[in-house]
Design goal:
- It is a single chain.
- This protein has 225 residues and is an alpha/beta fold.
- The chain is built from twelve helices and six strands.
- It has a six-stranded parallel beta sheet, sandwiched between helices.
- 36% of the residues are buried.
Length: 225
């Protein structure tokens, strides 16, 4: 019997790509005034440390700016504010079924949790978002010091919810080998396909070993299992 539903965040509950402003490495590099190739020499290798709480967005941007003799408090602040604003915009562009689906899960007395790989600026936005209040547990990699697909983050979530793995549904788009990790942890793993379908990425992102959910409300069909 399902007692808990655990969600991924990005490209599952919110999307950073479909009808959302983009502010990733290429766009940040353009604002700084350097090539994306120059920017990525520091940005890309920092991804692991930014995901598990060793470095913040500000740390890495300051390193890049100083390396290119472009540092100013004004420029750093402007880039950080722009990056945060684009993350906030994701939560204003939810699939219209997301909140009704979360509300229905709450009415069914199932526990709700979130496991998300995220950076410092994303963790703050997630905790302040309009959907944060639905979750009984939120494990954000930046705060936890570990990320998916580490089995420990799934184990900690189950412990916080006071359920067993076989009582959990895990819903995610499939990035970071999360579906495989959830299945290996003993959960029922389902692939969230709605944002991938809207973006035209489903053919490349489809994982045939896992049931595909075409809309958020498809989740509700699994609650009684």
């Amino acid at each position: 019997m399902v007692k808990a539903v655990i969600f991924d965040m990005f490209e599952t509950l919110v999307t950073q790509y479909y009808n959302c402003p983009l502010y990733f490495g290429e766009q940040i590099a353009a604002d700084i005034g350097i090539s994306n190739e120059e920017f990525q020499t520091i940005w890309e290798p920092s991804g692991e440390k930014r995901t598990i709480g060793i470095q913040t967005l500000e740390d890495v941007l300051e390193e890049i700016l100083r390396k290119h003799n472009l540092y100013s408090e004004y420029l750093l602040k402007r880039i950080v504010e722009k990056r945060i604003a684009t993350k906030q915009a994701c939560f204003e562009n939810l699939d219209p079924e997301i909140i009704p689906m979360l509300e229905e899960i709450k009415r069914s007395k199932k526990k709700l949790a979130l496991i998300s790989n995220c950076f410092s600026e994303e963790a703050d936005v997630i905790r302040q978002s309009k959907i944060a209040g639905y979750f009984d547990s939120m494990l954000l990699s930046f705060e936890q010091g570990m990320k998916k697909p580490d089995a420990k983050i799934f184990e900690k979530c189950v412990k916080e919810l006071n359920v067993t793995p076989n009582e959990c549904l895990y819903i995610g788009d499939g990035g970071s080998s999360e579906l495989e990790a959830a299945r290996d942890a003993g959960m029922t793993a389902l692939q969230a396909g709605w944002y991938m379908e809207q973006s035209g990425w489903l053919d490349n992102g489809r994982k045939p070993d896992f049931p595909l959910l075409h809309t958020p409300k498809d989740v509700l069909g699994y609650l009684g299992e």
